[in-house]
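Issue: ligand-bound run for S-adenosylmethionine - logging full I/O for the record.

Environment: standard queue, default settings, no custom constraints.

Inputs:
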Amino acid sequence: MADDHTRVQDFFTTRAADWDTRFPDDGPAYAAGVDALGLRVGDAVLDAGCGTGRALPALRAAVGAQGAVLGVDLTAAMLDSAVRAGRDRSGALILADVARLPLRSRSLDAVFAAGLISHLSHPGPDLAELARVVRPGGQLALFHPIGRAALAARHGRPITDDDLRAEHNLRPLLARSGWLLGTYTDEDDHFLALAVRTR
Ligand SMILES: C[S@@+](CC[C@H](N)C(=O)[O-])C[C@H]1O[C@@H](n2cnc3c(N)ncnc32)[C@H](O)[C@@H]1O
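Outputs:
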């Protein structure tokens, strides 16, 4: 577990400073991903694996000043970049592992997680921990500003059947972790899986 975390932290620490400049045109895709959560003013929402906080302004806009926006990430350098970009004005930033969230059970209305799931070494237990902190009926958005096939092409590798985000893998994984998969979209310009916290 510690080795897995160190690998993730090392990977993202070297990328933190220029993370936002790598894909500068992703803003509208993030706004649309947040929009799909259907947040209401006053809601409490977590950005799990928030990185540099690219989604935080859209999440704050959705829940308003009365709402609560939290960003959790394992990599301190990513959170430092979030602060430098002023994203801490949109939400509270917490250095933590999504496997052990310092949050009360059922205290949130929704979780937004962009680009997180493929970096988790224990996705089942981690998704179950996200389910723990969300009220029954609350929502989870697993988002990426690029689809699976386009991402595989960018990395010069084929898309494989064992990909965690393939619908036939993701649906049962979510079901075992306390989530019911609803909408599933995998297009070149975005990936979005929307799930509801089961009772
Ligand atoms: C691909 S980046 C995405 C960052 C941001 N959500 C975005 O869309 O720009 C994945 C992020 O997840 C974080 N992460 C990976 N495993 C994590 C864990 N177990 N707990 C919390 N954060 C984690 C990494 O540190 C990294 O910042």
